[in-house]
Amino acid sequence: MSVLSLVFFFSLLTLSLSQPPPPPLKGFFIDCGATEESTIDGKVWLPDAAFVSGGTPKNLTTPVLDILSTVRSFPLQNNLRKKFCYAVPVYRGAKYLVRTTYFYGGINERDSPPVFDQIIDGTLWRMVNTTEDYANGMPTYFEGVFVAQGKFMSLCIAANTYTDSDPFITALEFLIVEKSLYNSTDFGKYGLGLVARHAFGFSGPIIRYPDDHFDRFWLPFGGNYSTPAGNRNISVSSFWNLPPSKIFETDLKVQPMELNWPPLSLPNSTYYIALYFADDRNWSSRVFDVSINTVSYYRELNVTPAGASVFATRWPLSGATKITLTPAVGSNIGPLINAGEVFEVLTLEGKTTTRDVIALEKVKDSLKNPPLVWNGDPCLPRQYSWTGISCSKGPQIRVITLNLTNMGLSGSLSPSIANMTALTSIFLGNNNLTGPIPDLSSLKMLEMLHLENNQFSGEIPSSLGAIDGLRELFVQNNNLTGLVPSILKKPGLNLKTSPGNNFSSLPPS
Ligand SMILES: *[C@@H]1O[C@H](CO)[C@@H](O)[C@H](O)[C@H]1NC(C)=O
Ligand SMILES: *[C@@H]1O[C@H](CO)[C@@H](O)[C@H](O)[C@H]1NC(C)=O
Ligand SMILES: *[C@@H]1O[C@H](CO)[C@@H](O)[C@H](O)[C@H]1NC(C)=O
Ligand SMILES: *[C@@H]1O[C@H](CO)[C@@H](O)[C@H](O)[C@H]1NC(C)=O
Ligand SMILES: *[C@@H]1O[C@H](CO)[C@@H](O)[C@H](O)[C@H]1NC(C)=O
Ligand SMILES: *[C@@H]1O[C@H](CO)[C@@H](O)[C@H](O)[C@H]1NC(C)=O
Ligand SMILES: *[C@@H]1O[C@H](CO)[C@@H](O)[C@H](O)[C@H]1NC(C)=O
Ligand SMILES: *[C@@H]1O[C@H](CO)[C@@H](O)[C@H](O)[C@H]1NC(C)=O
Ligand SMILES: *[C@@H]1O[C@H](CO)[C@@H](O)[C@H](O)[C@H]1NC(C)=O
Ligand SMILES: *[C@@H]1O[C@H](CO)[C@@H](O)[C@H](O)[C@H]1NC(C)=O
Ligand SMILES: *[C@@H]1O[C@H](CO)[C@@H](O)[C@H](O)[C@H]1NC(C)=O
Ligand SMILES: *[C@@H]1O[C@H](CO)[C@@H](O)[C@H](O)[C@H]1NC(C)=O
């Protein structure tokens, strides 16, 4: 096994037990498909129309509670693999817990819900398969932790090869969390996708806000083996991950301590693991070794009432996982564990160069009917790039071709297209574009420019002659006037200007 990056942290500070009231939750709570605002358990849920273009709001036919009663559904459209995105305003650099909720409710008139993908910014986050939960009458949640790289974060839904009916989403939450949470992760390169979060030895309802200040969900696990809470005198605090103190009220104590946890088979990947411990008595020596599968994870962990947490930032796991706690030699008492979290470490795919994104947004704005699926990151994930564009590979992701031939587009061509300096070809033929041809002389890589069969007016900009590599320039069947610049009549440039324009035959005086 390769050398692992391990970080350990012990909480040594002990603060007073008198807790201030929990801070209010900060962020956006979006009730997909809803038409009105609602307040549930202190969260103000907003209707989703302001955050998304495309899709249709639908009411579930079976009566269900609150936010689960509506969804937004997106057209499968012959399974064109296109994404539909929510754009949520965020604070650049802030850390967000993102939670998506899905509850099918039979909206597609099929028994079984569709399987599809969810995408965060330019990264494929997870395949959404709600089949089993839905069969059990349960909604499905996904939770991830990501740092905002810009002023908006996008969450997209997209059909994949398994999708057999319209994908949908029920709710979307973007919650700001403390900077210190999971901060051994380099959030510029990675995101975390939750696999499991459990309170061990706990059998009550899910622990969440206000116990957890960021409304993380701590599920009960192994309640049958728990030790009764009793007179605990635990005063943990100052864990970087800020777990709720309620998880330390119960624990698991079995010997030998072998936990098959997380309780599912994991895909081969790297994982962030955090385990939380606090002793419930202060006169013992509770020291043990922690191993994951057969690999030693931490030796001679000394657990006290002040608590300890150990975490691994990037640990490879695959299939079933077993956590083993073995008493150290000389320890007079067995091990215990209070809680654990496992996240898959998602490698972020990056994002399209901002300059190109801004320019494309302006091109989109100047079209009267841009392709509906032009939202989210233009290039990424690669299998879900925008209709009609192709992009470069490598660390700088640029748009290199634009082909919107015969898309029924009207409106004008924004001069901002001149900022997409990596473009090698522009195909806009057979549309109804009007207005002037912008100055494109900054597109030094441009080889092909097809504007034929539109209604462009004005003159052909002579600055096109400054693009050395231009090989094809087609502008026939527009409403162009003036003179065809003589600089364009050069060898190596295939120039097509007629029929269908109204050029002057004489040079102007
Ligand atoms: C869903 O139900 C609400 C209230 O009952 C109603 O206002 C809304 O028009 C319905 N939406 C659809 C898409 O049927
Ligand atoms: C979705 O989950 C169901 C139930 O667990 C399973 O039978 C099915 O194969 C899954 N679909 C995909 C595409 O993974
Ligand atoms: C994580 O946050 C804690 C508390 O703010 C801080 O002491 C620690 O240095 C941070 N660690 C990293 C790796 O940034
Ligand atoms: C826990 O106990 C309950 C009732 O005693 C039982 O129904 C359940 O199957 C047990 N669960 C496990 C995981 O042993
Ligand atoms: C809990 O422990 C603290 C010191 O750690 C002590 O001051 C306090 O009296 C104890 N409380 C109980 C109920 O044992
Ligand atoms: C997991 O993937 C890594 C890298 O792709 C590979 O080296 C390793 O053998 C895989 N492990 C298992 C158990 O499949
Ligand atoms: C342990 O806790 C008791 C009260 O529960 C307290 O009186 C005693 O001082 C504590 N001992 C240590 C070593 O902190
Ligand atoms: C541009 O798109 C049209 C329509 O989708 C297609 O027929 C054509 O081959 C494409 N041209 C290029 C150069 O990719
Ligand atoms: C342009 O618009 C007219 C009507 O406004 C329509 O008849 C024609 O089909 C459109 N042409 C293209 C190529 O979309
Ligand atoms: C091109 O981008 C620059 C900033 O990089 C901006 O100032 C300028 O207005 C843009 N040009 C157009 C035509 O949008
Ligand atoms: C373009 O020219 C055609 C005929 O020459 C005319 O019908 C049309 O109105 C013109 N369109 C624009 C936008 O100038
Ligand atoms: C072409 O231009 C000339 C002079 O600029 C104008 O008289 C004529 O009407 C135009 N023809 C068409 C078809 O627009």
UniProtKB/TrEMBL annotation:
Residues in Malectin-like domain copies: 30-345
Matching InterPro entries: Leu-rich_rpt, Malectin-like_Carb-bd_dom
Membrane topology type: Single-pass membrane protein
A single cellular component GO annotation: membrane
Subcellular location: Membrane
Keyword Metal-binding: no
TM ranges: none
Signal peptide: 1-18
Keyword Cell division annotated: no
Keywords: Leucine-rich repeat, Membrane, Repeat, Signal, Transmembrane, Transmembrane helix
Name under which the protein is recorded: Malectin-like domain-containing protein
